[in-house]
Amino acid sequence: DKVVGFFVTALKDLDAFCAEATTTSNSIATLHAKIEKDLKSRKDKSESKKEIEALKATLEADYKSLQKVIEYGTKPNKYQRTYVDNYMKTIDKILTEAPAEQERKKDATEMPQLFVDRNIKLNTSKSLALGKKVDDDCKQAMTEAETDLKAAAPFLKSAQVALLALKGIADDYATAEKKFKDAIDNSKDKAKIEKMIAAIAKTFDTAARTFKGVATTIKKAG
Predict the structure, then answer these.
(1) Rounded to two decimals, what is the model's pTM?
(2) Which of 31, 32, 69, 192 is nearest to 124 (CA)?
(3) Phi/psi at 46 (nearest 5 deg)?
(4) Which residue of 8, 85, 94, 131 is surrounded by the most CB atoms within 10 Å?
């Protein structure tokens, strides 16, 4: 910010100085023209002519110096003059950009721990085990319900707990798949990751249908 402030101040000072130089230069040019006209009307041996010619030479030197100043003021190009505005717009954009958008850009280039190879294997195995747990508990609940509906309740409860745990894993991967789509698409393990996500989703869907069917059947029997 200090550098930008210095640049803005320096540019303003330069423009102001050049504007003043231009005004002075124009005044000198006007005065020079009048002196030229006056010298032409004087006699060659006029006593004051030498003094006027000396003044004319001084004005010409000053005029050349001022022209160099004015020329220097035109050196900052369009890009340099708009640099500060563009810089501040960029800073404002960064500062006002929604945190969620910044997080999305960051997430697009980073893979979460869910997709680390060992976690893929672990969560796939865990999902299959939970799916089997739901299926086994539902089968046992149906068996118990044939003779005692109350005896089926603990197995349904156990199946529901396993199903909720399985849903948590499936939801985590479904969310991560959307959130990290770009990173997955650019990953060398894309096929493996997508296959694993599909397997977990399928395991959950199958377990959910099984639980719903058994729970509904037992409820109707009661």
Answers:
(1) 0.51
(2) 192
(3) -65, 135
(4) 131
